[in-house]
Amino acid sequence: MRIARLLTLSTLALATPTAAAPPSRPAMNKPAQKKPAEAKPTEAKPFDLEAETRAWHQKRLANLTSEDGWLSLVGLHWLKEGDNRVGSAEDNEVVFPTGTPAHLGTLTRKGGTVTLSVQPGLSLTRAGQPFTGGELGASEGDQDVLALGSLRFYLIRRGERLGIRVKDAEAPARKQFHGIPTWPVSAAWRVEGRFEPAANPRKVPVPNVLGTVEEMTSPGTIVFTLQGEEYRLEPVQESSTEPLFIIFGDLTNRTDSYGAGRFLYADPPKDGKVVLDFNRAYNPPCAFSPYATCPLPPPQNRLKVRVEAGEKRYGDH
């Protein structure tokens, strides 16, 4: 949160004439004009780190627990070439949760294209409109999400792999969610770092839980100090106007925080500086569901220090 500056107003000096000349003609009775009200100075709100962090975390939990949040994730099915039958019956290649039709239809993969033929009589929607079958998009945006009752499913691409991700608003993980423990908010974990831009944005290999590696674009390196020691983190970024995304690990991963590391966002560099607020370090989706495809911290982002800030481990993850 940026702090607004106080506005200052100058005082107007009113000159008083020593003598008033008599009017040459009778003055007309004009209504007195009101003096425009002067704008009051804007008061800057003091930055309250704890209040700001708590507000941010409440919003983060609201997203996590929403009907299509990560807690609703109940399945991920990789498609083979050819036909993949879909439904809740065990004889399907893609088995949906109990309560959905035993045989919903067939997903057919031909190279990089997937189509769905729906069983007659079933009512699916896509982007709120009736869907009776056809090619599936893989943007993972709302326009490509198919719905059947409380179920939502859509196509995802991970390299050469194509899969169906399934979410259910009635998922037990969502219904039984009990909050995420966090470390106390502390100004000691809000640090300013020096940004060292790369000569050209470079591709950084980032591993993921699938065992594959994805090339992501990094604009440079953040150099900062914690407890008297200098550390470095390499963020990734979709574009120069987007926030910096940092996938990092630290020594708390062994016992207190999620074992596969945590995520952190930071504003783009300003005047060569980046603020890292580890109070906003949060667990990746894989901490809540085995069906997420999370990136893992690259070797250069594994800090040899305990970052006792942000979210702690959730449940037995």
UniProtKB/TrEMBL annotation:
This is DUF1684 domain-containing protein. Transmembrane segments: none annotated. Keywords: Signal. It holds the Pfam family DUF1684. Residues 1-21 form the signal peptide. Residues 17-31 have a biased composition (Low complexity). Residues 17-47 are annotated as: Disordered. Residues 35-47 have a biased composition (Basic and acidic residues).
